[in-house]
Write a structure and sequence with these properties.
Strands 12-11-13-14-10-15-18 form a seven-stranded mixed β-sheet, sandwiched between helices. Helix content is 39%, strand content 22%. The longest helix is centred in the first third of the chain and has 16 residues, at 185-200. 32% of the residues are buried. By secondary structure, the chain is of the alpha/beta class.
């Protein structure tokens, strides 16, 4: 009887779909990860659900590892490295029977290996992955070898670290008085309360804004700013100084912007703070970005990415080389998407390095580097150094200039996978942006594997969700009918806004051969949109519309956050576009061959231009053919290099007429960019078949 696999059991229990299993298997390829872990990381299922399902299906006991206290003798039976890698934990030893906990009791290979190495009979129980890892951490303990080495080092008692004092500007302010005011207990309590209350409210930013007669504190919750409290003008300087002190900024400097960082520990949770100051006419404005590491790392499927987008996205980032760009305005969740992808691709076999400004969330098993442009450590400089560190995957915080774009593109062409962001409105605009900053079209088409654009929109509050009337102007959008419209009536849970939480809206442009040809020929953005639509690309507005149909958000929220992009999906567009240029350019000296080719091609609607002694490059520039036919003479093959080096003709199909003796040199022709060979004696039907096949492919 065949042993059931984990994926089959989870589908049978209706915890995942076949499509989700297929996505997980694609994401698992080339990585040393168990399927269960990949499913958990994608957010399709939790480790508890996996354990409970296996318990029911296999009739095994589900246990809590913390209920057991294994002796050192029992722990020594399974080395810590094996326990962590295989997610197995020894519980107790009774004679020749060893009881163990496993996250995946279907891992028959591990069970057999442990039985062989220990010489014991194994009794298997089930526990969740987190439960096993927590028990391993507590019971095995951390290695002490490093500490023993450090303790043996000399004490260096005569060395001390001295903190550099800030320059005082006594002429501009009373530094000592301001410092004392900021340390006064009421001010300390007030600033602490403002930050702690923002964390509890789920705010992403705190705005402390000096105004003419007061100081306004506002929180950004679910992407929208909300007035919280106005405070007297008299405490303005003390509050600003207190925030500067906790973030190690210069409280004497009020004329220039400053950036700092700090952290807040609240109820066993640590939240990182990014502080920015900006001089204004009424005093310094302060914005505090709140970064909660526990909420920043979200599984891809929990971001709101539909399965139709998730599958090709997984295929893109599972490739060994290429570039995936995430685009959108500030605050649209680009970094969160990148971190979600990094969680998927990180494995012990990959060297992953990130370049960030600043590093927002810490990830295990990944080298994270902070950019510091004030000392000249820019993205471009850092990327050059990183490429000498033997990376497999590089995450670049942002592409800002041509230098960075060129280095990243060439890295993507030389065996690395590059992840990065751009500030553009949509996927197609990203292609235009790369070319506008100076990147050659052939580099864009060769390096970029895909572009994903995104926005964040608010979810309807589940507590006060209610049906509502359809909007009056709904018919103008020519999109699928919405059966029922919903809105949030407003309640205490959502602070009477009708919204609670946010969900992502996405648009994925996957680079295919047709798209590469369009870009290399400098088509308009409208042409690229139509080509993308033919390949199945959905705009962000269409993705947001699906979320209206599903009852996740409102029509008003979509209109206010998502740019409407209408694509006229003309079924005849592709053939019409191709028929505009059915020109075939022939470079050959044999008049009989030219007559034969011209006859068969013109009968099938092609326009034929031939040259017997003209310059290939000049003729190609002049005629701009959709396809080139040439012979295998040495001078013709040499000229192909120049043609292929021009971005406009980088993907123009080329067919070579050759003698049978050339077959052993075919590989050299393919390296020059020839797409197909037709051998003499010339068969007109075979040539026509080759032309039609290549055109359909391109």
């Amino acid at each position: 009887m065949r042993k059931k696999r984990l994926g089959e059991i989870l589908i049978a229990e209706k915890l995942i779909t076949e499509e989700q299993l297929e996505n997980a298997l694609i994401a698992q390829k080339g990585k040393n990860k168990k399927l269960g872990k990949v499913l958990i990381e994608l957010g399709y299922i939790t480790d508890i659900q996996v354990a409970e399902t296996l318990t029911k299906q296999l009739s095994l006991q589900m246990i809590d590892c913390n209920d057991y206290t294994p002796t050192q003798e029992v722990l020594d039976l399974i080395p810590r490295e094996t326990a962590e890698r295989k997610l197995v934990y020894p519980l107790e030893l009774q004679g020749k029977n060893l009881k163990i906990a496993m996250a995946n009791p279907l891992d028959w290979e591990t069970i057999e290996d442990l039985s062989f190495t220990t010489g014991l009979r194994l009794s298997v129980a089930i526990s969740s992955e987190n439960n096993i890892l927590t028990a391993i951490e507590e019971k095995y303990g951390s290695a002490d070898e490093t500490w023993e080495i450090i303790n043996e080092l000399p004490a260096y008692d005569n060395v001390e670290f001295v903190k550099e004092d800030a320059d005082e500007d006594s002429s501009s302010m009373n530094f000592q008085a301001m410092y004392q005011n900021s340390e006064a207990p009421p001010i300390v309590r007030l600033v602490t309360m403002i930050i702690a209350d923002a964390v509890k409210s789920g705010a992403s930013d705190i705005h402390i804004e000096p105004r003419e007669h007061n100081v306004m504190v506002r929180y950004r919750i679910d992407g929208a700013l909300k007035n919280i409290q106005a405070y007297p003008k008299q405490i303005q300087d003390a509050v600003i100084s207190r925030v500067k002190i906790i973030s190690n900024l210069d409280i004497t400097n009020r004329r220039f912007p400053q950036d700092g960082r700090s952290a807040l520990r609240l109820e066993k949770k640590t939240v990182d703070l990014r502080i920015s100051t900006l001089p204004s006419i009424y005093g310094e404005k302060i914005v505090i970005r709140l970064l909660d590491p526990t909420t920043g790392l979200i599984a891809l499927s929990k971001l709101g990415i539909s399965d139709k987008i998730l599958k090709p996205l997984i295929e893109i980032y599972s490739q060994p080389q290429g570039m995936l760009l995430v685009t959108g305005p500030t605050g649209s969740g680009k970094t969160t998407t990148l971190y979600s992808i990094l969680q998927q691709v990180r494995t012990e076999t990959k060297n992953i390095i990130t370049l960030e400004d600043p590093v927002e969330y810490k990830l295990a098993e990944i080298t994270q580097v902070g950019i510091n442009e004030s000392i000249g450590f820019t993205f471009a400089n850092a990327l050059r150094s990183v490429l000498r560190q033997d990376p497999d995957i590089v995450m670049l915080g942002e592409i800002r200039d041509l230098d960075t774009a060129e280095i990243a593109s060439r890295a993507a062409l030389t065996g690395h996978f590059v992840l990065s962001t751009l500030h553009t409105n949509d996927t197609v605009a990203t292609i235009s942006r790369l070319i506008d900053i100076g990147l050659e079209p052939f580099l864009v088409t060769s390096a970029v594997s895909g572009v994903i654009a995104q926005r964040l929109i608010r979810r309807i509050c589940s507590e006060c969700k209610t049906e509502t009337k359809p909007p009056e102007n709904i018919d103008q959008y020519k999109l699928p009918d919405v059966p029922v419209f919903y809105k949030g009536a407003g309640c205490n849970r959502c602070n009477h806004t009708g919204y609670k939480g946010r969900v992502g809206v996405y648009e994925l442009l996957k680079m295919d051969t047709k798209l590469k040809r369009l870009i290399s020929k400098s088509y308009t953005e409208d042409d690229i949109w139509r080509c993308a639509a033919e390949s199945g690309t959905k705009t962000m507005f269409e993705d947001a519309w699906d979320k209206i149909i599903e009852g996740e958000t409102t029509f008003e929220e979509v209109l206010s956050k998502i740019p409407f992009q209408y694509i006229e999906r003309d079924d005849n567009y592709s053939s019409t576009k191709e028929n505009e240029n059915h020109k075939v350019l022939i470079f050959d000296n044999d008049e009989n061959e030219i007559r034969t080719i011209r006859s068969v091609l013109e009968e099938n609607g092609y326009q034929v231009v031939h040259s017997t002694n003209g310059e290939m490059l000049e003729m190609t520039k002049k005629e701009k053919p959709m396809l080139i036919i040439t012979n295998n003479s040495e001078d013709k093959l040499t000229n192909l290099k120049d043609i292929r080096n021009m971005s406009q003709f980088a993907f123009t199909p080329i067919i070579c007429l050759a003698d049978e003796t050339y077959k052993e040199h075919e590989h050299e022709g393919f390296q020059l960019g020839i797409n197909d060979f037709v051998y003499r004696p010339l068969d007109a039907k075979k040539l026509l078949f080759s032309i039609n096949r290549i055109i359909q492919t391109f």
